[in-house]
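Self-study notes.
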Amino acid sequence: MEETISIKDIFYTLKKRLILIVLITVGAVLISGSISYFVLTPIYQASTQILVNPKDTENQLDVTKLSSNVEIIKTYSVIIKSPAILEKVIDQLDLNQSVTSLSNTMTINSQDNSQVFSLTVENSDPALAVTIANTVSETFQKEIKNIMNIDNVSILAKANLPDNPAPVTPNNLLNIAIAVVVGLMAGIGLAFLLDYLDNTVKDSKELEALLNLPVLGSIRKFDKSTQKKSKNNTANRIRSEMNES
């Protein structure tokens, strides 16, 4: 027998399992919110901008030099994360970190055909993130003269600590929004699964379709309070008739 599901059946299933869907959604939101606010550690970012500035005594734009300095930014990115720079930063700030762990908190981005690149540092302490970013930039500017025997690096913008620093991760509102969507999907999916696994007969029409036989009659279900009230009424009526006789 081929079964079809109408839109009415879908809405009936959702209405019947509405409490289940709501409970799962609320539970997902509470779990996500608790993890985001109380378990995950907020991470803050601080960025500086560094300029590779070629010195041209003739004050002429040399395309070859410009291209060369853009390419050398890749070399600078490696040098910034090297022990030659980070070990001095760790000693200067007395950080309880290794060179590798400190390097993993740093990101260097450069724009295409630009001599400017940014150094971004992530840390659970916003003030420390600012301090590390500025110290790394200043140490790099100082040490690059000895490492590559050049003097063409300038710090365009230092990292600053805002009045109300906002963490970049976790994004609490986004996590809660995702939890709402996931909770709704899980609740609706479970509602349809329970409805699919429920093989009880719901009404006379379903019984007729299942047995291919007509339903001749039905017995109404009475609750206990109705049955008790009916018995009391019958007993009172019998007593009344006996008294009259």
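Second protein, same conventions, sequence then structure:
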Amino acid sequence: MNYRQLGNTDLMVSELSFGTWAIGGAWGKTSDDEALKALDVAMDAGVNFFDTADVYGDGHSEELLAKATKGKEDKIHIASKFCRAGDIHDPDNYSEEQVRTYLENTLKRLNRERLDLYQIHCPPFKILKDGKVFEVLDKLQQEGKIRYYGVSVETVEEGLFCLENQNVRTLQVIFNIFRQKPLAELLPKAKEQGVGILARVPLASGLLTGKFSKDHQFEDDDHRNFNQNGEAFNVGETFGGLEFAKGVELSDNLKWIADDRENMTRASLRWVLDQEEISCVIPGFKNVKQVEDNLRALSVPSFSEDELIKLKAFYQKEVHAHIRGGY
């Protein structure tokens, strides 16, 4: 396992880490036993960072992380997120009293006294511009409740705005072969300012695994069913903002990336890892097999300069115009 510094913090995180939305819920059937086994496999492989949120299974993913990391609290770093358990448009949802309540509940579920990274969970731009929530986070940091804080954003514009706040230490962005826009301005500026980048949705909700056909049916409780067109939350969080059938078509046109890289999953993660501005990539998982598959991305070949140019042109000519969700 290779480790990268998380921005200008003192945290060194595994370059391939994991997000825990899927084991919490909203991705179809899950098994807690299998999830805990998968977490153990990840940690045994050197993974020392996990991203979660209080709304992932109404806190269930946080509870699973508490079980998996018991006795390893000093070695395993955890990032969580807040705000979406309430009305994200209501300024009172970001008051000191409410944010403190969110944090205390998260710490209780995680069985920790301090959180390594606390992130605002894709709030409306107006909340970020208001700025009061940052003052709350500053206070919690001064009290030692959180080590650092950051923002999970939906758009490049929001990310650039957050970079203006010197206490924002990380940005979490949707970034994958289908979502390359951050490469142009956001990622270079973040690196320049020492802000860590967490790359989420790196497999475009599974599209970049190459395993779907256009007639695939997702389970009722899977967000890839109930949020295909943004019915429940920002459409960019599902399939990277692509309409499913179009995404399958585009994925089929990318099968060449698996040449010499074993499969599309590993190739797609390798592409994200090849971007020097990325602190770590956080794919999701539901079982041991998926964790092992994702970890194999660390050992497959990087992309050549010619391949990177080809993928950039593919994004610009074939993909960008079809992205929904604000990017």
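Instructor comment on the second fold: The longest helix spans residues 96-110.
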